[in-house]
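Listing S7. Sequence submitted for prediction.
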Amino acid sequence: MKIIGLIPARYGSSRFPGKPLVDMLGKTMIQRVYEQCLKASSLHTVVVATDDERIAEAVRIFGGMVCLTRADHASGTDRCMDALAQQKEHFDFVINIQGDEPFVDPGQIDLLAKALTPDTELATLIQRITTLEQLQSPGEAKVVLNTKSEAIYFSRSPIPFVQKIPVSDWLQHATFYRHMGLYAYRRDVLGKITQLPQSALEKAESLEQLRWIENGFRIQTVETDAEDAICIDTPDDLQRALDFLRTRGESK
């Protein structure tokens, strides 16, 4: 079974334009993401999928593989399909790795890959929620599972609702999970889900995975207890990442 790791990377960003090319102590952010992905033993190939020639050239300079995609894709999933269609090799699965996580854990990529079988349609990582802040944050997508550990529903609201118990005590009376960013798609399923129109639930929650569930696709989940990688959405996030690098002894 051959797996390609695809890293969608846009130049445009409302909160942090050009962030894939930001300097992180001598390396661009996209280079750091790429190098972390190369450490994952499960990936046969790693490719950056971008809509911008500046990013493409930066990847070529450090020796990475890159392909140019259309600029009008609505999501990273759509960009992954565009990039997959350009590959000359056949791949059975795609793992979509966020282009703004320069410390993505290769072990988490491999963990997700281990869950993939010919019957797997889609797969993603989840983590048990341990704090009330995570549970109540609309920025955290919560997920409920069936007995096969497949996702039944994702929501920005705390789910499930615990009847007759104060919210402050919910963590003591039910198990809650949050969604983490890695996705795996079977090749044929990726082609199908990118042809689906936006769904009502997806629009309401602003979570594209709800479109897949509404259309009958199965999302296998894999639980991890690993710490979150630092995701860089703003210049303040970048400063945190640089501080982290310096604590590891890196310097420019």
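Caption to Listing S7: primary sequence and predicted structure tokens for the chain studied. The chain has a mean pLDDT of 94. The chain has one domain: 3-125+180-199+212-247.
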